[in-house]
Amino acid sequence: MTLLILSNLLTCLCILLGVAFYTLLERKVLSYIQIRKGPKMIGVMGLLQPISDAVKLFTKEMLLPHKTNYMMYWVSPMVAFSLAMMFWIMYPMTNGTSTLNLSMVIFLVLSSLNVFGIMMSGWASNSKYAFLGAMRAMAQTISYEVSFVFIVLFVTFLSSSLSIEEVNTGFGYLLLFFPLLMIFISSIMAETNRAPFDFAEGESELVSGFNVEYGGGGFVLLFLAEYSNILFMSVLASSMCFGVSQMSMISTSAQFTMMSLLFLLARGAYPRLRYDLLMSLCWKCYLPVSMCIIIMIGPMI
């Protein structure tokens, strides 16, 4: 029991450090895309910039907006952060302490609960901009959740297991169906509210979206939850595409890095779409294709 608790705490600490330096990588990649240098003043080549940002945000005063639902206002960042950390606790580790037989089912349950942190934070802020951003994010997440679940079930049926560890040790099934891989990648970008599907934010009409009224520690928790979900989706995508456990640690790290870089390159290369086109893409294109794949799974097996 003690080993399990220590393993989970170490995992969460590593994820927090990974998120911190992933934000630095994002700022560096976007800056070079835009032909500039990015963070470079704090530390060697800006390597201490994430630590500086964390200290600044956690030491800022957290203000409570007028007429907010104060209990839900404080609880919602903690809910979002806790759900994001639960993803990593169920992922199989090398010491075998976190192996679960039905981890894929737990993943689908947690991913469906992910929307509650956004909904609670947007509704409790007592702001029209935050509420509209939360409504956008909820509709977008729930819509793409359906096709995303169908693709995950497709891989689990082919691997004949509901365990993430079995999916890891299997063949990269999505490489056999490249259009399905593209649907999966764009679905996880929409799930995590990333560009070009970041409609939870809108600088011209929503300022910063559902988290516009948060500052200091509350904003940090929402920020960590979003980027932790991005990293976990990158790990899951590399598992479903390549079967990472069959390869060396260097190959596994390269696959994960490539998947996580896709999020950054997409943000730097593509403009934000129209919201009605996003929803039309989901319900008229992605959902029929994913349903047809599920119907075909019986003859394929």
The strand count comes to 0
Distance between the termini: 39 Å
Number of helix segments? 12
Number of domains: 1
Structural class: mainly alpha
Quick one: biggest sheet?
Answer: none
The dominant shape is globular
Strand content: under 5%
Tell me the helix content: over 70%
Cα-atom radius of gyration: 19 Å
- Overall mean pLDDT stands at 83
Q: What pattern of helices and strands is seen along the backbone?
A: HHHHHHHHHHHH
Poorly predicted sequence stretches spanning 5 or more consecutive residues? none
How does this structure look, described?
- This protein is mostly helical and 301 residues long.
- It has one domain.
- It is 71% helix and 0% strand.
- It starts with a helix and ends with a helix.
- The model has no long low-confidence stretch (mean pLDDT 83).
